[in-house]
Automatic annotation (TrEMBL):
Domain CFAP61 dimerisation: 1032-1150
Coiled-coil residues: none
Stated name of the protein: Cilia and flagella associated protein 61
Organism: Monodon monoceros
Region (Disordered): 293-349
Length: 1236
């Protein structure tokens, strides 16, 4: 915040922020005729879309006081966008302007009274926000004066002609040193003590408490050849301090961090041991497998000679951004002098032999090498080439200039090439380390510190981005020689040099980054030819106004590699690609890994180390169109074509100078349940945050591997939260570390999770989402020869099964388990001759039976044994549907046994494998032959998981106990999902997370935790004590579906509720009404239940043919009038078949992903817009409800008349038509004004 004073003495507090699209209206109101003459006639929205930096000043009342827009090329068309440097160098050769240090002002507006103060505040803020910026140019017609405001910060340097007009333009310049100058750096003196102590004490008092009041003076006095103290000063006052030391514990660093990319920070030595001995390379940890790559089902590459496609690199598992560009050793760059000119000259002589070691391909980790060699540590015999920063502090006002220290400190150690700093990992990322490379720790490192490295060459500001030429080929070959896809990069570079376009005619561009005449980076882009598909399938309009970007301005990033010591120039590289390539947007896809450990080869994308400088784009939910019914009114093929799914990442001109907030907290999620996946999804799609330490612990890694291929029938029912395509569209593996193993213990004191009894995973925040699983049933042991009944043996079956699990016994909890079962069936000829027992009474028993029938197992060989129900409510809770399923089972020859309890396997002998199974019933026992046993007994918390909770003293009462904010009794441990129950103090034992939609639970969990990390969110206020006793109620639909016996496609959608028999629900006075069409026998059953408010609460479908389930899910929560007055039409006999009804063109908008946004917009109109002397419609409805007004007519008629006769109807109609017009590519079946 700053305080401005007007010439009349009025005072106004102003705040700076990035310009937002909703500022457009206010900006237009601040434009004067003088502004138009100065900057030209501008389309404000388009200008903001293409701006690299736009800043707005507002006061405490959120009124906009001023706005300025900056781009990286001149306005008024005085020089080409891609070649303006030479023009301005000719104007004044003493101004060393480059694309790195220069921006151009394209617009400035301000409230007249405060314009001078606003202008200076904006200029100061821009220089502060962009540390590399030194010059801001302003170009205006030569006959125009700058006016009384801009003249205070700009000085004219000359005139240049326009490329299109026959007139000259005046060039004005603003220098950094006049507003936010570089800091003067010098050695510290004892007299600096009094200036520095307040800065230190403002941040922390630990040093004073530990080392005494004069610790700083003693540190300054103790300087010698190995220890130096440096200060930065402003006007003779020390405002920052840095203590550096050349003594570094290299042994500890080599043990804890993977420093191979930088050759261990040592000089090369003949005795260095850089590769593990052969015997080590085939050994590894036998327990959990900690994977730093993206694929949780990694396999040894069996065919190394086979060309590997780009997607290898796409599916990298998140380790840290810095890992993405390194693997091989980096031989240090020797440059012992301090001046940039001398460094450049030295670098040009010695750099060429080293650059090829700086880049490598972490995608090789995506195809796992032989079992992890985590015990191996390289041995470096050379001398250390690093010094460390021991202490650093700087006044917040000058923090943006922190890098000014680095030139001076490197001059103190001419024989050192690396500066390192280690920090507690929870330290917020400050400006200085944003220029450092974060080093990847070894998997088993338990050091609670992060290590950051900066190379001397990173100080060079002579980096230049340009289009590649044929002469760059040797440099690029040298640069990418260690990359797995170097061949693909070089082929594309050759194609560019030869033809400038692909063989199919797509324009192609290649760019190189050059420092000291050496190639340090390469990028290849093509024109994005699938932009219509991208727009319709991804929410790119969260980041851009699509209509303000020309088709040719969309680019597709194929390759990107940059030497890691210049990693802090990644965003500059991307910005230059956009400028030189005349692009405004770049897109980068991440394809899923194919099965069998091979890779898709449809596109050649290399791994990009720039992934964390891009933003992930959310996929859009797609309408399932009835194409035959729509005919010519169907969308284009670009919209509905079934292309290979991929996760999309994006950047644009607005984002090139937009910083991300790094969150280094170690967030560990246990369990890849829908809740856990939803939680991780919510975090990674926060585009302004970068979570660098997300870890998932899961027995089978990430789901979504499409293990069952194109098998239409799945063994397990679906909750419709995620499918394989959804996982491909998210690519969580690009952002999340995956530890494959099982949590066996939690050390709360050390904040550690023990995986598979041996591996250690550290956490700051632990999120438990393991859910509940089907368990191996424990036979009661009853001897059926004694003819026992359930009454005699039932209680003995409640204990945990502790014996060996038979090889032909299967509990199916995820796709991995299903694949094992499927493999067993095919390998053991079960479909031909095996007897299969399916034990349980959940919906999964029905879907499993149907899958077995579909696989060819004869119905007479399938035995469905249902154990005594634990509730009066069946798994389907609809007699009509249950009757159809039972009829289908009988027709297929499947034998059904009810109220049966497992007594013995193999008559009590060795159960492995199971040859027979005995059961007791309420009457007489029975025995069945068995080749395969499926158990679907009631789900419960896994025993080992329970032991981990219990040993960690987490409160467990049948389930893990949590409060309304997901906390367990440990503030650092949260839990969610069916694993949990609410504390007894809420008196709501019947409500648990099992009653709600898992995806919504995960989202709400992430929303609670984001309050800890996201500074842009409003602080959360604690609820009153009485409200803290209320449990949260979530609104998302609870869904289940699958294919039931008889090939019935089943879907049930219902509101969250305590399970109640359907007959009891229908007997309630406030039940509402139901609409049923078709019948279960013909497979045309469709039931909709609306509550007393006419809102859709329940949908049940049972069909012989597949139906668009994702469409029907969107009907939940809609009012029946939105469904084209469904209730009235049904009563009039106009809706004979709901399946056909919801295939009609009129309802396509209901299934659109932005229909909910339209509803919110219409609600906003009715609640906020007011006509003169008349309250809003919402206020009128409240007054009628409270009987504050007397009406001569029915309230409904009165509100309808007010709507028709006032401003509301045209506003609502306009909003609807605008929505249809904007989304016409999805909804071409609708007409709107202008096309009819």
């Amino acid at each position: 915040m700053s305080v401005l004073t007007s010439p009349r003495g009025k005072v106004e507090a102003v705040h700076c922020r990035r310009t937002e699209s909703q500022d457009t209206y206010c900006i237009k109101n601040l434009i004067r005729k003088f502004t138009q003459k100065l900057f030209g006639s501008l389309n404000i929205i388009s200008l903001l879309e293409k701006a690299n930096f736009a800043i707005t000043l507002h006061n405490d009342q959120e009124e906009i006081m001023a706005q300025a827009t900056f781009l990286d090329y001149p306005n008024w068309n005085v020089a080409p966008q891609d070649d303006w440097v030479s023009v301005f160098r000719e104007l004044d050769s003493e101004i060393p302007c480059t694309p790195l240090n220069t921006l151009f002002m394209h617009l400035f507006v301000a409230v007249d009274e405060y314009s001078v103060g606003c202008c200076k505040e904006i200029i100061r803020t821009v220089f502060k926000a962009v540390p590399d910026l030194h010059f801001i140019f302003l170009i205006v017609p030569s006959y125009m004066s700058l006016g009384s405001t801009l003249i205070t910060v700009f000085n004219q340097v000359g005139n240049i002609p326009s490329l299109t007009y026959d007139e000259d333009f005046a060039v004005h310049i603003c220098h950094r040193h006049s507003h936010y100058p570089q800091l003067h750096i010098r050695k510290a003196r004892v007299e600096d003590h009094d200036d520095l102590v307040p800065i230190f004490l403002h941040h922390d008092t630990i040093l004073k408490e530990t080392y005494g009041e004069y610790f700083l003076a003693e540190l300054i006095e103790a300087q010698d050849e190995e220890n130096h103290a440096i200060v930065c000063e402003v006007e003779g006052v020390a405002v920052g301090f840095m203590s550096v030391c050349s003594r570094v514990n290299m042994q500890l660093l080599h043990e804890c961090f993977d420093l191979r990319p930088f050759h261990g920070l040592c000089t090369p030595h003949p005795d260095d041991v850089l590769e593990p001995p052969q015997e080590l390379s085939v050994q590894g940890s036998s327990g959990a497998e900690l994977r730093s790559s993206s694929q949780e089902c990694q396999q040894i590459v069996k065919e190394p000679q086979e060309a590997v496609s780009p997607e290898a690199g796409e599916s990298i598992q998140r380790k840290s951004t810095e890992e993405a560009a390194m693997e091989e050793a980096l031989s240090p760059v020797q440059s012992g002098n301090t001046s940039e000119a001398e460094d450049t000259e030295k670098l040009s002589q010695e750099y060429s032999v080293d650059t090829r070691y700086c880049i490598s391909n972490t995608s090789s980790a995506s195809i796992s090498l032989p079992e992890e060699t985590s015990n191996f540590r390289p041995i470096y015999k050379g001398t250390s080439t690093a010094f460390c920063i021991q202490l650093f502090c700087i006044d917040e006002k000058h923090e943006a200039r922190s890098l000014d220290f680095m030139n001076f400190v490197f001059s103190l150690f001419p024989d050192k090439n690396f500066c390192i700093i280690s920090l507690p990992h929870l330290t917020p990322e400050f400006v200085l380390i944003q220029n450092f490379v974060k080093i990847v720790p070894f998997n088993n490192c338990t050091l609670d510190q992060d290590l950051y490295v900066f190379h001397r060459a990173g100080l060079l500001k002579t980096i230049k981005i340009r289009l590649a030429t044929l002469l760059d080929t040797p440099g690029v070959e040298n640069l990418v020689s260690t990359l797995m896809l170097s061949k693909s990069i070089l082929e594309d570079l050759q194609q560019y040099n030869e033809a400038r376009r692909d063989p199919d005619g797509t324009p192609l561009q290649a760019f190189v980054a050059e420092v000291a005449e050496q190639v340090v980076g390469i990028a290849v882009i093509r024109d994005e030819m699938d932009i219509e598909y991208i727009r319709s399938h991804y929410n790119i309009e969260d980041f851009i106004y699509f209509s303000h970007h020309q088709r040719e301005e969309h680019g597709h990033l194929y390759h990107f590699a940059l030497n890691p010591i210049f990693q802090h120039y990644t965003k500059f590289f991307l910005k230059e690609i956009l400028r030189l390539g005349y692009k405004s947007c770049l897109y980068y896809p991440v394809y899923p890994r194919a099965k069998e450990g091979k890779f898709q080869s449809s596109s050649a994308h290399s791994l990009t180390s720039a992934l964390h400088y891009l933003v992930p784009v959310r996929p859009r939910r797609q309408i399932v169109y009835p194409l035959e019914k729509l005919g010519i009114n169907a969308p284009s093929k670009e919209v509905f074509r079934d292309a290979l799914s991929y996760a999309l990442n994006h950047t644009n001109r607005k984002l090139t100078l937009e910083p991300k907030i790094t969150v280094n907290a170690k967030i560990v999620v246990v369990g890849a349940s829908s809740v856990g996946i939803s939680f991780l999804e919510t975090l990674i799609f926060c585009s302004h945050l970068k979570f660098s330490n997300l870890t998932l612990i899961s027995t089978h890694g990430l789901p979504g591997k499409n293990l069952l291929g194109t098998e239409q029938r799945k063994f397990l029912a679906s909750d419709h939260c995620y499918n394989d395509k959804d996982h491909a569209l998210m690519s969580l593996c690009s952002w999340v570390n995956v530890v494959v193993g099982k949590m066996t213990a939690i050390d709360r004191a050390a904040k550690q999770v023990i995986v598979s009894r041996e591996e250690v995973v550290l956490y700051d925040h632990l999120v438990l989402c393991t859910g509940q699983q089907y368990q191996v049933p424990r036979p009661t042991g009853a001897d059926i020869s004694q003819h026992p009944t359930n009454r005699e043996v039932l209680n003995s079956g409640l204990q945990q099964y502790t014996g060996p699990v038979p090889c032909n016994h299967f509990t199916l909890n995820d796709e991995e388990d299903c694949l094992k079962a499927l493999t067993w069936i095919r390998n053991n000829s079960i479909a031909v001759e095996g007897n299969v027992i399916v034990y349980g009474n959940t919906i999964d028993t029905y879907t499993t039976v149907e899958t077995l029938l579909n696989l060819g197992v004869r119905g007479s060989y399938i035995h469905l044994v249902q154990h005594p129900p634990t509730s009066i409510i069946s798994c389907i809770n609809n007699y009509a549907v249950e009757g159809a399923v039972q009829d289908a089972l009988r027709a297929a020859g499947v034998t059904v046994y009810r109220d049966a309890v497992l007594a013995q396997w193999n008559d009590g002998l060795n159960p492995d494998p199971i040859h027979s199974a005995s059961f007791t019933t309420p009457t007489k026992p029975f025995q069945l032959p068995c080749s395969m046993f499926f158990s679907f007994c009631e789900k419960n918390v896994d025993y080992e998981t329970f032991r981990a909770f219990n040993d960690a003293c987490l409160v467990y009462d049948g389930r893990l106990v949590i409060d309304t904010n997901f906390h367990t009794n440990d503030i650092a441990i949260r839990a969610a999902g069916s694993l949990t129950k609410f504390s007894n103090r809420y008196y709501s034992n019947e409500w648990t997370h099992s009653n709600f939609n898992s995806k919504e639970i995960g989202f709400q969990l992430a929303a609670v935790m984001l309050n800890l990390f996201d500074p842009t969110l409003e602080p959360v206020t604690e609820p009153p004590a009485d409200l803290d006793r209320l449990i949260p109620m979530y609104r998302g639909a609870k869904i289940k579906g699958g294919i039931l016996p008889g090939s019935y496609h089943y879907l049930h959608i219902a509101k969250p509720a305590i399970p109640t028999p359907l007959e009891v629900q229908m007997a309630q006075s406030d039940f509402g009404s139901e609409i049923v069409t078709g019948n279960v026998k013909n497979g045309t059953y469709f039931r909709i239940h609306t509550n007393k408010y006419k809102m859709v609460e329940t949908i049940t479908c049972l069909s012989k043919v597949p139906f668009p389930a994702s469409n029907y899910i969107r009907l939940f929560g809609q009012h029946e009038q939105v469904l084209n007055n469904l209730c009235a039409r049904y009563k009039d006999g106009l809706v004979p078949d709901l399946y056909s009804y919801f295939m009609e063109p009129w309802c396509m908008a209901l299934f659109h992903d932005r229909f909910i946004d339209l509803r919110k917009e219409l609600r906003q109109i009715l609640s906020s817009k007011e006509e003169e002397n008349l309250p809003s419609i919402e206020e009128l409805a409240r007054q009628i409800e409270d009987e504050e007004i007397n009406l001569p007519e029915k309230p409904k008629n009165y509100l309808k008349r007010v709507f028709q006769e006032t401003i509301y109807r045209p506003l609502v109609e306009k909003s609807i038509l605008d929505s249809l017009r904007y989304n016409h590519y999805h909804l071409p079946m609708y007409a709107w004004q202008g096309i009819v």
